[in-house]
Design a protein that fits this description.
2 copies of one chain form a homodimer.
Chain A lengths: L2 H7 L3 H13 L4 H11 L5 E5 L6 H14 L4 E7 L12 H8 L5 E7 L7 H14 L4 E6 L4 H6 L5 E6 L4 H14 L2 E4 L7 H13 L11 E3 L8 H17 L3 H29 L2 H11 L5 H10 L2 H8 L5
Parallel strand pairs in A: 1-4, 1-5, 2-3, 2-4, 5-6, 6-7
Helix pairs in contact in A: 1-2, 2-6, 3-6, 11-12, 12-13
Chain lengths: 323, 323
């Protein structure tokens, strides 16, 4: 498995794709694999693009890719779709990009799904970001399929977050107001030719205005028409400015992200190994799970017993990192 | 703390509200508290209502409440808003209901927010459901503020899931197609007087038709106008029919939910206690967290060390359930 890393470093795209799958799958080797990859990771800009379905994110990302390629930068895209248990293939608006960038070795696009459990999706995204930076990409884009709490959480991985809306997203904006304000470094109102675009931009500017600026950055509200390309240069410039500012100010969020990763890796390992033990009915905790299933014990009685006699945990977590 | 349960059983609404907060907060006493509550829980119908913002869910829930009250049933509503760190008060469309049901002792409405960590929101919802059933409510409604993976996951707690859409939700439907089909027991197209309502209903019927029926239940697609009340009786009847069918067929999902609760309670306890140890820098794992923060160790090197010497875990989890 570890020779995949060598191949990936030599530019082998198949090895890179395999490594993404291994990271997603979480096996007994995941933590060790990530230890190696993390040592190879480089601090490249990570740009998140989020917004409701139909906002035109994919078209915009496609334009961004074109700009970075024109500067001869290698671009990796992570398309996060928490609603999909599938990953790997071309979901989302990838078909557009397939046409434009399919034969371009400088672009790598990968979808990440939830695989049934979305709690670890933010962690997986941060791990794939580390992998892509190790693989030599100069900029990494994270695109989500919608706006929800999972998508917002995934955006924690990004240095710069672009929130893309369209005049029709009025309801969404109302509902998610606090969350959007919290995560947006740049607001983009796309489909600017449609009715209500200026009004929405104005409302967003008022929202932004009421919020104290973070790290001397005032969140810009920009208008685009991703289809025609109008306004996209301004957004690309704003992204570059914000990334600069983040790296200049020491990228403090990355320190917090490291500690969070430590916490989350341990939680995910615990969840994964416990899940395995429960399914297979292994050990003391597996016995308790059977009693819960049969209705002989409530989940909480069983949990209290498991917590009081937690020696099973050492065996569960201490086992098998084996190469 | 445990005397709150006695008061709650005597009908004290303040005690009930306090217990919800304690469940949400997760303290050292949570598992023990839930053990008591779980023993008092009763198998009452749990109905989930989900759909994108602006679909009219709150108005519809208000009408449902009115119907149940007319049959002299006591109704509890859990309004789940993963995007909000706040809970307790009147977020969502609660103001409408405040007007209609504020002085009605037979209705209890409570919002659940994510409190910064939404991984445990499904677990908290299932725990509040157990609490409300123990408190004597005859039917429990779970309403979400939007459709996202977190909301879908919360719907696992319900016996019957109503997915409410409006003609404008076209994009949402496209994006979430698989997820919506997976969770919906009943589709409702609200604002049926608007253009495109019939077309959307027809498309949904085609989607439903292509899916094999689950447990001999064919998912109905109903048209409503929650504002005027048109079609709401039909939906209420479909809900009653589906709940009947679920309980007749043995409510197998509740067995799976018990085992899942056992798993998730242990994971959440692990997450919570580990988080505390990391913040306070306690023990071996706290020392590792410091090294991660200072950049002396990568999160993955530290995680491997923590997993290899997992004795700290016994202390972490075995400690303090103390009354």
């Amino acid at each position: 498995m570890f020779d995949l890393i060598d191949k990936m470093l030599q530019g082998n795209r198949y090895a890179l794709a395999r490594l993404v799958s291994i990271i997603e799958d979480r096996t007994d080797h995941s933590v060790e694999l990530m230890e190696r990859i993390y040592d190879l990771a480089r601090p490249v800009p990570v740009v998140g693009i989020t917004g409701p379905p139909g906002a035109g994110k994919s078209t915009f990302v496609d334009r961004l890719i074109g700009r970075y390629r024109a500067q001869d930068q290698q671009v990796a895209v992570i398309a996060v779709d928490p609603s999909s248990p599938f990953s790997g293939g071309a979901i989302l608006g990838d078909r557009i990009r397939m046409q434009n960038h399919a034969v371009d070795e400088g672009v790598f696009i990968r979808s990440l799904g939830s695989r049934g459990h979305f709690g670890g999706l933010t962690l997986s995204t941060s791990e794939v970001v580390a992998l892509f930076s190790a693989a030599g990409f100069d900029v990494i884009l994270i695109e989500t399929v919608g706006v929800g709490q999972t998508e917002f959480s995934v955006m924690e991985v990004a240095d710069t977050v672009v929130v893309m809306l369209v005049p029709e997203s009025g309801d969404t904006v109302q509902t998610l107001k606090a969350g959007l304000l919290e995560i947006a470094d740049i607001f983009v109102v796309n489909k600017a030719d449609r009715e209500g675009a200026d009004k929405m931009a104005q409302e967003l500017r008022q929202m932004v205005h009421m919020k104290p600026p973070k790290d001397e950055w005032t969140v810009p509200v920009l208008l685009t028409s991703a289809n025609t390309g109008r306004g996209c240069d301004e957004v690309a410039q704003a992204i570059a400015d914000h990334v600069d500012q983040v790296f200049r100010s020491g990228a403090r969020h990355r320190v917090a992200a490291r500690v969070r990763a430590f916490h989350e890796v341990l939680v995910e390992e615990f969840r994964r190994r416990l899940g395995g033990a429960l399914v297979q009915g292994e050990g003391a905790v597996g016995q308790l799970a059977r009693e819960v299933r049969d209705g002989r014990k409530s989940p909480y009685t069983a949990a209290l017993e498991a917590l009081h006699n937690a020696e099973w945990l050492v065996e569960l977590l201490g086992q098998a990192d084996g190469r």
